[in-house]
Design brief:
Number of domains: 2
Radius of gyration: 23 Å
Strand order of the largest sheet: 1-2-5-6-11-12-13-16
CATH architecture of the largest domain: Alpha-Beta Barrel
Number of strands: 16
Low-confidence stretches: 168-172
Strand content: 15-25%
Mean pLDDT: 87
């Protein structure tokens, strides 16, 4: 059976994805930028617009990471505002489960779900570092197993709050013209090692039952967490085979949790460069990558792995001839990439082998190792490759990460989406009014 492709947009925020030197690159905080990307996404019948989260300005070598100075606005505020300028587009936000509280997050998402008529989604994440935790009363951080355990309990608790209202608890009294509330409406009580709360939830059940639950993470714990509760999982794979392996693994875990394969969607993040020809697109893509990874950026990224000052190195020269510093404090603070290196010495050996095999300079190596899944080519080539990934079970769709804000998806929407529609693998209208309906997820009781 031919699968339908799901598409979504990521507002990139502060990172090296955005080509800041391009005159078309506009504000990361003005509402007009969010509006443009949201309206473009809805015009293209995308499932949702996704916002990431940054709970603290990142630092490198004791200085604020320069891209963070453009601002990191509050997720709920932006999504609530976008609910008023869109009709069908889902509104997905990343909210941390380590430093927040279930009642507060459940109330905010339930409110957003009502304001948007059933289009809210929550990307459940954990926070891994004490640096970020210093911004919060609880502070500190939790080991990975405890972080995911708290996240599981957090999600269970919020779902109890969402589900504490049922259908007809609130009824209208025709004689008095007032509303009568069943005393059981919104009643909850939850007690475990992390949370001990009880009371009455203030927001009635939303149009889609409860917000769609997303989870991001490629670790084994992350995959298991997604398989147990999430409606969709975000991932990142650079090849078709890697995507197929991840897809098969995550889908195989669902049965153990009493779930079917269609209850969890897989969304890799990807970038797209569309040109008049394949050669034109490849040329554009090479230019974009060099703009994204300048010489200083390459050195700064290398310093994240080596964990030492490499400012004297030539970015167009070879890698350091000494090993990374594995002990002591980390040079970069608040960056998720620093924990993804795992074994720093092993990663450095791998980078050296790659650089030697391909005769790569530092900058060329960083361009290669930081590249995300990309579709590069003419409109027909991009459409064909995206369809191949979905039909061969490497994904259920894609979250598109533009290199320009806010107009980076305009070409894709105008030139590729119509070809996907012609192939019969992409919708020509929204099938429903809620995000859960548009994603094709099972209806909640």
């Amino acid at each position: 059976m031919t699968k339908q492709i799901h598409l979504a947009a990521h507002f990139p925020g502060v990172n090296n994805t955005t080509v800041w030197s391009d005159p078309r690159s506009l504000s990361q905080i003005e509402f007009s930028s969010f509006t443009h990307l949201a309206e473009t996404s809805e015009r293209a019948l995308f499932d949702f617009l996704f916002l990431a989260e940054g709970l603290r300005l990142r630092e490198h070598a004791g200085r604020i990471y320069d891209l963070d100075v453009v601002g990191r606005p509050d997720t709920f505020t932006v999504l609530a505002a976008l609910a008023g300028v869109t009709d069908r587009l889902g509104l997905a936000g990343t909210i941390n489960s380590t430093f927040n509280e279930p009642y507060e997050v459940a109330r905010q998402f339930a409110s957003l779900d009502h304001l948007s008529a059933g289009r809210a989604a929550w990307n459940v994440v954990t926070s891994w570092d004490a640096f970020t935790g210093e911004n919060f009363r609880r502070g500190g951080f939790l080991p990975e197993d405890q972080r995911y355990e708290r996240a599981r309990r957090f999600l269970e608790t919020t779902i109890e709050l969402f589900d504490s209202w049922r259908g007809d608890e609130v009824v209208a009294d025709k004689d008095s013209g007032t509303f009568l509330s069943d005393p059981r409406a919104g009643e909850f009580a939850h007690s475990d090692a992390h949370f001990d709360i009880r009371g009455r939830f203030t927001v009635p059940r939303s149009p889609q039952g409860r917000p769609v639950i997303f989870q991001a993470g490629d670790s084994d714990a992350g995959r298991e967490f997604a398989a147990s509760r999430a409606d969709a999982i975000f991932t990142r794979h650079s090849t078709l085979q890697a995507g197929k392996d991840f897809y098969a693994d995550v889908k195989s875990r669902l049965a153990a949790h009493g779930r079917s394969r269609d209850e969890l969607l897989v969304f890799p993040a990807t970038s797209v460069v569309v040109g008049d020809t394949d050669a034109d697109a490849q040329e554009q893509a090479a230019i974009i990558r060099k703009q994204q990874v300048s010489g200083p950026t390459a050195i700064a990224f290398l310093e994240q792995l080596w964990n030492t000052d490499l400012g004297e190195l030539d970015p167009d020269g070879p890698l350091p001839d000494f090993d990374p510093v594995v002990d002591g404090d980390t040079l970069s603070k608040g960056r998720a990439s620093t924990r993804m290196f795992g074994d720093r010495l092993a990663t450095a050996r791998g980078w050296r082998e790659l650089a030697e095999a391909k005769n790569l300079s530092i900058r060329e190596l960083i361009i290669e190792v930081t590249a995300r899944q990309s579709f590069i080519g003419s409109p027909s080539t991009v459409a064909e490759e995206m369809n191949r990934f979905v039909q061969e079970d490497a994904s259920d769709g894609f979250i598109l990460v533009p290199h320009l804000t806010p107009g980076g998806l305009d070409d894709f929407v105008d030139r590729v989406v119509p070809l996907l529609q012609e192939r019969g693998v992409y919708r020509t209208e929204y099938p429903g009014t809620t995000l859960r309906e548009n994603l094709g997820l099972p209806t909640l009781p």
